[in-house]
Design the sequence.
């Protein structure tokens, strides 16, 4: 049994083959990426034939399906695992390839592609911009009420001279609250990674 992990999912092995079912889970479990669909492809069938006919056979059986029991799964040789990962996406292929290379070199496995880092200056700047947006939202609410009708007309007059109507770009936008919430959520997800 090998000790292979892809994106925090342990990949079972059986007789030198690796579980495509576990890889499917690691990739996100999308229905369109089920192992059975991959194995039905003509290109996959051709690859299996090439592996079976190869004079320098590394594995005796390229694919093995275990039905029933507690852990049914489809197992495949390393070449098919890499082809399966390629079929799913280039990003997933890179993760699987690096995990196999690390396993063969007895190095620690990379569980995922490195996440981009957000430096402190960027965070501080984004927080300031969000604060400005919230202040603007309050300003917008104040002048868009019945009481502020005269103020709204004056502001429209002052901004009407800006070329290309850029003066109206953010004034009186109905969905500023949703935009601010979306920006807040995005910033929070970057900070808490």
Sequence:
């Amino acid at each position: 049994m090998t000790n292979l992990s892809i994106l925090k999912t342990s990949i079972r092995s059986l007789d030198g083959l690796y579980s495509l079912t576990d890889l499917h889970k690691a990739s996100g479990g999308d229905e369109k990426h089920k192992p059975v669909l991959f194995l039905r492809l003509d290109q996959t069938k051709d690859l299996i034939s090439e592996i079976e006919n190869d004079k320098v056979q590394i594995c005796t059986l390229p694919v093995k399906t275990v039905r029933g029991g507690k852990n049914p799964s489809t197992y495949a040789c390393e070449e098919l695992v890499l082809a399966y990962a390629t079929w799913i996406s280039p990003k997933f292929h890179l993760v699987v390839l690096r995990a196999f290379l690390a396993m063969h070199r007895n190095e620690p496995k990379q569980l995922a592609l490195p996440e981009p880092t957000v430096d402190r200056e960027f965070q501080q700047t984004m927080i300031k911009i969000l604060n400005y947006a919230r202040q603007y939202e309050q300003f917008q609410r104040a002048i868009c009420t019945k009481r502020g009708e005269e103020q709204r007309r004056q502001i429209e007059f002052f901004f009407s001279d800006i070329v290309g109507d850029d003066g109206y770009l953010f004034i009186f936008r109905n969905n500023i609250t949703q935009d601010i919430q979306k920006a807040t959520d995005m910033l929070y997800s970057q900070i808490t990674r």
